[in-house]
């Protein structure tokens, strides 16, 4: 499915307060991937919760103009909460979500200045990261 901020791609309104709750069957997980992301830095925020929207479930708070990495829930519910302030807006966001059966791990996402090698993300599959010329990989190259 697709989730877009109100008014996308022509800009979202001030004082927005939107909640999306994605629910799938038990034992499944949800992967959220961003196609476009442009929010006023620090003032307009997309909060993503792993489950219901409670403080302990906050997975990430997103703002600014950098395309976020993919997000995978640990359970069958993923909640998005979008809030904006009284002034300045941007294009907004477009996110794609899909259900991951329990035997898949989900796409771990691209890395800045790097390349993901691998297209299968099932349990037992391996993927490899490499860096563009002039950059050094920190962490594991093979997952």
TrEMBL record:
**Gene3D superfamilies the record matches:** Complement Module, domain 1 (2.10.70.10), Spermadhesin, CUB domain (2.60.120.290)
Which residue intervals define the domain CUB in the entry?
1-100
Q: Which Pfam families match?
A: CUB, Sushi
| Cited SMART domains | CUB
Ordered alphabetically, the record's keywords are: Disulfide bond, Repeat, Sushi
Q: Which domain of life is it from?
A: Eukaryota
* SUPFAM superfamilies on file: Complement control module/SCR domain (SSF57535), Spermadhesin, CUB domain (SSF49854)
The answer to whether the entry has keyword Repeat is yes
Can you say what this protein is called?
CUB and sushi domain-containing protein 1
Which gene is this protein's source? Answer: CSMD1
């Amino acid at each position: 499915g697709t989730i877009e901020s109100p008014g996308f791609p022509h800009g979202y309104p001030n004082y927005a307060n939107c909640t999306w709750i994605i629910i799938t069957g038990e034992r499944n997980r949800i992967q959220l991937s961003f196609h476009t992301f442009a929010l006023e830095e620090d003032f307009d925020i997309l909060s993503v919760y792993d489950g219901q929207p409670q403080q302990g479930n906050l997975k990430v708070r997103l703002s600014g103009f950098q395309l976020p990495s993919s997000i995978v829930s640990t359970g069958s519910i993923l909640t998005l909460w979008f809030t904006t302030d009284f002034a300045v807006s941007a294009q907004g966001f477009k996110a794609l979500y899909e259900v991951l059966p329990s035997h898949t791990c989900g796409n771990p996402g691209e890395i800045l200045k790097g390349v993901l090698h691998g297209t299968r993300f099932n349990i037992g599959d391996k993927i490899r990261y490499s860096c563009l010329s002039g950059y050094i990989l920190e962490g594991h190259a093979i997952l």
